[in-house]
Every structure is written in structure tokens, then in C-alpha cells.
Amino acid sequence: MCPRLRRRSVTVLLLGVGVGVTAGCGPDPIPGTEVGESAHFRFFIDPDRADDLSADPQGTKRLAELETDFADKRTMLGTPDGRKIDYHLLTPAHVAAVCGFTEFSTSDGESACFLEDQMAIAAAYVPHQHELIHAYMTLVAPGSRPVPFLVEGIAEAIGCSRPGIDRTWQVAWQQATIGTAADPDEYVYSEGGLFARTLIRTQGIDAYLRYFRQAPARRDWALFAANFSAFWGMSLDDAWTAMHTVSPGDSETDVEICPCSLAPAPTDGRPITNDRAKHPYWTLPDTFGSSVAVTVPSGDLVWLQDCAGIAPEIRTFYTGSPVGAPVVAEGVVAIVEVPDARPRYLLPPIGTLSVGRFLADDCAAAEPYALSENFLGGGHLWILANQTTAAARTTHATLQVSVATKVATETGYRATICNGCAFDQGSCPVELSRSLNPGPVPIAPGTLNVEFVLARSWLWAGLPTQAIGDLMFGN
Ligand SMILES: [Zn+2]
């Protein structure tokens, strides 16, 4: 009987690092049939995933997604061609059997494993960015098996997704650096990821990879620290303090580094085809200091993430549609004042994207933005702007409304709607705030000049912060 490894989010390193597999025993054979092959992958589908087999019998779409991931991550890792990676798309139960899980956990979406001796990934979805990095690293650093803190750290360091970790929370490096992938505290993931990201950002990916290749395999904190200071010329104590320190303007939440090598989203305002094989994320085009208007389906979020993973996220809140309102494809519009020139990306699906001066301090300077008729039947408009001083932020938008509808606000702050820019004359037909008129107010079609007094978002601590306002449309 072979011993079972109880893991949650694991790299199964069957050789070395003391995982303890009995000699002569191998893992369960991986169920699945090879359906297709590409330049860097062979793709297998579990016979129990009949829907996937019928939807993509040769795995063409999945292989395209995997090749896009390979090419994107290669821009950072310099991944060489080499042995093909076997990607097994399995049922969660089969992932558990192959990886040695005793139960399937969905808490972090990471239930999967990389079987290094077979160059195989077992996962319940495609592409599993964490396990793919493990596979790429066997090509980038063949034969290198540093401590799990570094192996899991790099797998958590590079990716394009939303969740992050609290940078200010920390444990002693003496504890984190000797952890294993199976430890329930998961420090090798959280602290290891932050450690790798910080080194990549500050020292560059090439230097980080050189460090990875020579780092010790033995889980010994004194050895780890000595190697660290010899390699980098700085003390691990100092580096640990720095990586848990939030610089002004950065976020307390530290997120994966996204290569952002993919082409930016088109900016002509026409509907965007969200082909995840080509665009698992959309990079934000250069807005040249203007604002950007993004639409997403009802109930979804507009969420701009910093490619480097350190700037505060810019996002709308989750809200329901008005009662009885239909779910529409472009039911959420966010007009975003992009705070700086840092590269950013959005996760699909997005409906449309337009760049223009849709927000302006001066009402007359706001470029008109046309709201679609579908949107006006039950849509949520968000204004996301910068707030750099303690004073409330006021901004203007000019909205083109093609049909009669009703409008309300949820943020509780003020939105004044005028036909023109005479906001200070007391003659504007509609003044909205949650306390004034909690119900929707009728508006006629036409051009609406809106003055927003924005609320400060609770998402960011301190200044600068995100200032937020909203209008809900629908009858
Ligand atoms: Zn892992």
C-alpha cells in the first residue's frame, strides 16, 4: 500500500525534498484519454467529463488556452522548449485520487497537482496557473529543487487573477521558510508568494531565477538566510521587513504579477468578443490621462488590476439589479478615471470599452457617453475617480439617454442631473441622494449633464483613494 499524501494545493515532488513515497510505489495512474497535442502540451480528458469531450473532442480550444498561457508566462520566465506537459482535465474526485487529497477543497480553487516525474498536471479546470508555473519551472530550472517556500512561492507569484494577500500580516521568516506544501498554515504559499513577487519586482525576474536555481533544498532557516544574504548582499531580516511594508499609494493587498504581454482591448466601443483562448485577460490600453468606460454583464464587476500586483485595485461593488429588471449583457457601466500610467488589466467578460474624457471637473468639458437602450432598462452606472485630498471629490459626466426611464442612486452621495451646466443656479430638475429620494425618479430622454459628489470607497485605506458614485437606471 503506498502512502497517501494529504495535500490541498500541492506540488507533488516525488523525487527529493523528503516527501516520503515508498520505493517501488507510484501514484495512481492518471485517468484520461489523450485527445490532442500542441507545441508544448498533450491534453487528456477524463472519460467522466463527457461534456468536455463532446464540446471540444480534440481539445483544440483548451490547448489554445494552454499555449496562450505558455507564451504569456514565457515573456517573464523565458521558458525553453522541452518535454511536453501532460495536462489532465479530470473530475474533482479523480483529481483527489491522483493527487492524494482526502477531500476536495474548493476554498482556494487550487485543488490540483503537478506530478513532476510524469511532467503531468491533474486539474479540474483549464488553465490552472499555479500548477502550470510548476511545470514551466521544471523547464526553466531543470534539476533545481529548492525548499517548498521557493517552489510554491514562484507558483503563487506569477498569474493574472483577482485575489491577493494582506501584505501587512506576517509570520517570522524562520517559520515560513521551513514550511512544506502540506502544512495547514499554507505559509509557503502566502509568504512564499509575497517573497517571490517582491524579489521579482525589485531585483528583476532574471536575478530571481538565478537565485532560485542555486537556493538550498534543505529546510533549514539558518542555511536559507545565509544563502539569501550571500546571494543578494542584504539580510533576510531587512528584506522580510521591506516586503511587509506598504509604500504610499500602494495597496495593502498584494496580488500576483501578471505578464500583461497580451494585446490591449479594442477601444472603439464596439462589442468585444471574449475568446478566453486568446484573451484570458485584457490589458488596458493607454488612456493618455483620459477616462475609460467599460461595460460588463448585469451582476458582474468592472475590476482593473495592476499588472505588477501592487497598486490598489479599481473596481465596482457587487449590487443587484433593480427588482424585475432583466439581466442585460451590458448591464454594468463603469466610467473610470485611471489614476496613473501603470499597466493594468481586466478579466473577461467585458462588453465594450471606450476611451475618452467622460469625466471632467468642468461640466462643459465632459465628453458625451451614450448609454444603450438595454442598459437603460435596468443598468447600473458606476463612476470611479481619484481622491487625493480629504475634500469630497466632485466630477461631471455627460450621458446620452435615448428612452424615458427612471434613475436612482445607491451610494447615498449626491448626483445632480441638469439639462446644461448651470449646476449652481438651483434650477436642475433632478437631485439624487439616498436620503432625498430612495426611489427611482423619472427622467426624459436627452442629454443629461450630471454632477457627482463622490463617496470615498471603503476599499482603500488612506489617500489617494478611490472615489465612487453611481446611478441606477430602469423602470
Ligand atoms: Zn504548488
Portion of residues in helices?
Answer: 10-25%
Overall body shape: globular
What is the end-to-end distance?
66 Å
What is the chains' assembly state? single chain
Strand content: 15-25%
What's the total helix number?
Answer: 11
The small-molecule ligands in this entry are: zinc ion
Number of domains: 2
SS content category: alpha+beta
Low-confidence parts: 1-25, 102-109
Q: Roughly what is the average pLDDT, rounded to an integer?
A: 87
Q: What gyration radius follows from the Cα positions, in whole Å? A: 25 Å
| Sheet having the most strands | 12 strands, mixed
The number of distinct β-strands equals 24
Kindly describe this structure.
The protein is an alpha+beta fold and 475 residues long. It has 2 domains: 9-254, no CATH class; 260-473, no CATH class. The chain is 23% helix and 24% strand. The protein has 11 helices and 24 strands. It has helices spanning 50-55, 60-77, 92-99, 129-140, 148-157, 173-176, 187-203, 205-214, 221-232, 236-243, 373-376; strands spanning 9-12, 33-37, 41-45, 85-89, 112-115, 120-123, 164-166, 253-255, 282-283, 291-296, 303-306, 314-315, 332-337, 344-346, 353-356, 368-370, 379-387, 393-401, 405-408, 415-418, 430-432, 441-443, 446-456, 465-473. The longest helix is centred in the N-terminal third of the chain and has 18 residues, at 60-77. Zinc ion is lined by residues 9-11, 130, 134, 152, 155, 181.
